[in-house]
Amino acid sequence: MTGLCNIRPSARVLSSSEREDLRPRPYRPRDQRPIDRPPPPGGRMARMWGKWIDCRVRPGAHEAFAVGQQRWSAISDQPGLVGQAGGWAPDGDRALLLALWADEPAYTRFLRERHDRAAADAAQHSAYSAIEVATGPVVLTVPGSSPSLPDALTRATVLRAADCRLHPGRADHFLDVQHRLWAPGMAAADGMLGGAVTRLAPDRYLVTTLWTTPAAHHAYTTDHLPALLPRAAVPTDVHTLTGHLLPLEPSWLVLPVRSP
């Protein structure tokens, strides 16, 4: 029997439509509408809105920044607030904060009605040398042991953030892996309270998870992560990943309060 390696296809010139079919295309899961896509015309899908803030704090200004950050508790009665939390990055000169809103209109209303006044009252501008703010829709929530994200924010002492910048055309596959592999894999770990995946740009996604203690997150990295990594094929999707394991400052936590 002739081996497969010796079989030669007959030579012919491909048509333009056949050449088009052979072009590489971005990954798309079969029989599944991509997670990060709008609803069909006439439909409505409310999405939470995420905000990631990275402040470079000046030497000697940490206390002033921290005091100002506590003043953001004034926005706790703002309609649509889900919660805000943050802390110091391990290098000590950066403050990182995650804010979550019920949807984009709620966040836009906050910007219009309260943000500038709250920022002026916090008086932090002289405490940092640079600030980067990125916002976008929460395209996937990660289930955990908490019944809601506000509850998770209340109980968490650590925030794990993975700022992922993707290769072009890999967003659908990245989100599919988050949905099928990472979300259930992390949910199986003791101490994982909940989390969210936020699209900050077309090829930039922020994966955030809340943990009860640093020890709980460490146990996940030793007991669960090694089995998940080979299946995720992270380098196929992710060009660069910046990770933070952030001890949360309790006095920076802002949770929604409702007027009686």
TrEMBL record:
The DUF4937 domain, residue ranges: 51-134
Regions of biased composition (Basic and acidic residues) lie at 17-36
Q: Which domain of life is it from?
A: Bacteria
For this protein, the record's Pfam families field holds: DUF4937
Membrane-spanning intervals of the chain: none
Query: InterPro entries attached here?
Result: Dimeric_a/b-barrel, DUF4937
Instruction: Supply the SUPFAM superfamilies for this chain.
Output: Dimeric alpha+beta barrel
UniProt-annotated stretches for the region Disordered: 1-46
Q: What is this protein called?
A: DUF4937 domain-containing protein
